């Protein structure tokens, strides 16, 4: 039986969650030799409206490229939580940006919360890297790829001038969630 793992990143358009999904898929394929597909959708208002990026990782070729039973979901905004925190499988996980999602979706899944955007702004010094904080957090939560594979994929994607910033963002998100799991 092949292992298929589905992850959904959701938030507002412009938050960089499509990029986070692409980086995760590249971490799985390029750095770990797994199969992965990434798909995305935006609300009609694109920037600011709810958007999602889905990544399916498998150890065998992927026959259907859309998420069907989501193992793990990230919701950065209330709108995205309301719209996309559905279809999470029983026993799955949902990570919420605690500053922006006040009404928790109900379901047979475990909810984890931490202030992702505020962490990017206050601890990293740049709100723009909230997506990389979130990516590190989701990799820590799911172990879908190794910490190293994720970091390598992040660093391969960002301009040289921003390597340290993104490395710090990724590691902070990763470490914060590992602390939550203790």
Q: Can you tell me about this structure?
A:
This protein has 182 residues and is an alpha/beta fold. The chain has one domain (4-181): Pyruvate-ferredoxin Oxidoreductase, domain 3 (3-Layer(aba) Sandwich), CATH 3.40.920. Helices cover 41% and strands 26% of the residues. The protein is built from 6 helices and 6 strands; from the N terminus they run βαβββαββαααα. A hairpin with a 7-residue loop joins β2 (35-42) and β3. The longest helix is centred in the C-terminal third of the chain and has 19 residues, at 163-181. It is globular. The chain starts with a strand and ends with a helix.
Mean pLDDT: 93
Give the class from helix and strand content and strand pairing.
Answer: alpha/beta
Main sheet summary: 6 strands, mixed
Q: What's the CATH topology name?
A: Pyruvate-ferredoxin Oxidoreductase, domain 3
Q: Estimate the global geometry from the Cα principal axes.
A: globular
Question: In sequence order, what are the helices and strands, one letter per element?
Answer: EHEEEHEEHHHH
Strand content: 25-35%
**CATH architecture identity:** 3-Layer(aba) Sandwich
Flag low-confidence runs: none
